[in-house]
UniProtKB/TrEMBL annotation:
It comes from the Bacteria. One of its GO terms (cellular component) is plasma membrane. It is found in: Cell membrane. It comes from Ureibacillus yapensis. Keywords: Cell membrane, Membrane, Transmembrane, Transmembrane helix, Transport. This is ABC transporter permease. InterPro entries: BP-dependent_transpt_permease, MetI-like, MetI-like_sf, OppC_N.
Amino acid sequence: MSVNSQIGNQDSTVASSVKRTPNFFVRWLRLLLKSKTGTFGFIIVFAVILVALFAKSLAPHDPKMINPAMMLKPPVWVDGGSSLHILGTDNLGRDILSRIIYGSQISLAVGISSVAFAGVIGVFVGLVAGYYGGFIDNILMRLVDSFLAIPTILFALVFLTIFGPSVPTLIVVLGITNWVQYARLVRGEVLSIKEREFVKAARSIGVRDCKIILRHLLPNVISPFIVISTLSVATTIILEASLSFLGLGIQPPTISWGGILSDGRDYVATSWWLATFPGMAITITVLAIIFLGDWLRDVLDPRDNH
């Protein structure tokens, strides 16, 4: 084959890839619009992400500003037309809406970061255990079984009590408690994929194990990993809120949804809005993430496509 023909083939490949790129997004958009729950989940999750990114511009008040004159004011309370608190104020006169907006930053950051941390560990362990098998597989899987035997909330409470509650510590402890599910999933996929012809062919021509794992196995386990990690973000947000509610998660003055719930638990009978609105924020966000994860599972899992 001549050099010109090779260049021509490369140009046609680039051109075809450029043409396929819009079609790829159009296809995914059509698949998303076909699912009502998936569309709802995507819109809510996208909106929450935008709120977290532009919290400073969207928050109507300083979320940490204490105003004794505005303590425990109900929603949409107006003081002479100068102070509007759409969701009311808390026991220190702080605006609930502003605190929920800023709390989305920490809740999303902890949820996504801990899932990413857990995913790196779990995918690595699953790839190694599934590919090499034998003695290595037995050791790694016994380690996985050991972590599964420990209650997640109990391990988190002990870990946070020893090292002290903070955002980095919370991300680490949530990542350590959640990596086992990724390891089991990836290992199961690798056990099946490594027996296929393209992997055997790569081995037969002397391709290194590291290159086989990165080029052939890893791309084939990304789809199920994305699905389970999306669903895990919802679980992690709930777990972070639970720990913050118990006083072992995010500590003041850092704002989180669980912390706002904890501040309002003593006023539920008299000031219902303190716990209701942050609880609704957690519920709606978690449901949206679950709906989006279910849609991704239906789209990315070929066994469920008809």
